[in-house]
């Protein structure tokens, strides 16, 4: 079924917790069909929210019971193993990054036959919906999304005499110099102007802004063309020559959001997930958001999204569809996204919640119109791991950027050839 070449064998499945949502039963009532739903770990607040949404679904569908399973570690390895063994749940989360491979393997149920006109498919953001199409067939319905936006410290801006967020990447670099502080003049930076994330998921728009691509039509790595590396070179130059940017590891933090919250970077590029984290963890932090500055005259950002998909081997497909329909319908989606943990993929829900007018989220919502879906072909691990390793090497000055990217591309394609 899969072309894993043994990679799936012996995958460790650990820390899997199950919870069954309580359902009311009555004498002579029909026996409820149990639909199994799997997703990855989340914060306690998000888990509580999901439990509430599923209980609402059960209340409206008394003949369907949902058994939710949280897979805390190695989620996709677990799901692939279970799909191979015909032991996968009826419905499960599927990240856009992993979707191209699973959609090509004939293990997901096509949803076109279940979708009715009254479901209002046109209400979904088109780019998000298209992310889960394969050969013109819909295999998943996106449950939520986030883009990336520029987060900036308003007090740090005021201290540096900066009134508005940067509009271009060149301006961002100039701002970062002004915002970088070495209070004791001893070479130890107290505050960097910009928190850099060198992972491919945060660098795709730097490649595409200069006409480059990450993968070709055959899912092979294609990011090493030297003429298209200006954006990545700008990142390296800022980090190495201007010393106005830092990675999370440089300042002893675990994420860009933490770096920003602790005041170790005055600007970072993060997603919607950073808003509740910063508000809860750093309640005194005065920050704002803006769209990512233009690069080479182009507006761009990333689109991260997750869909509900149905197992093709499910024995309860009508009930599984009812669950997917509710969770991605207007009512279920509004309940799920109403607290701000995630952004709704339906335009009508976004309008009802007013996120396009929200001071912190409007920049994120604007990005859905021009964002780049986070997908890099059928073999994302080979692409990501080799890019990340070699780009960090270039960032640290261990090798020139063109050499690093050529090595990353060659090694990725060698691995893909073995997998394909």
UniProtKB/TrEMBL annotation:
InterPro entries linked: SBP
Pfam families per UniProt: SBP_bac_1 (PF01547)
Keyword Membrane: no
Gene Ontology MF annotations: maltose binding
Key word Zinc-finger present: no
Source taxon at top rank: Bacteria
Cellular component GO terms, alphabetical: ATP-binding cassette (ABC) transporter complex, substrate-binding subunit-containing
Keywords: Signal, Transport
GO BP terms, alphabetized: maltodextrin transmembrane transport; maltose transport
Signal sequence region: 1-25
Family indicated by similarity: Belongs to the bacterial solute-binding protein 1 family.
PANTHER family: MALTOSE-BINDING PERIPLASMIC PROTEIN (PTHR30061), MALTOSE_MALTODEXTRIN-BINDING PERIPLASMIC PROTEIN (PTHR30061:SF50)
Name of this protein: ABC transporter substrate-binding protein
Species this protein is from: Dulcicalothrix desertica PCC 7102
Lineage: Bacteria, Bacillati, Cyanobacteriota, Cyanophyceae, Nostocales
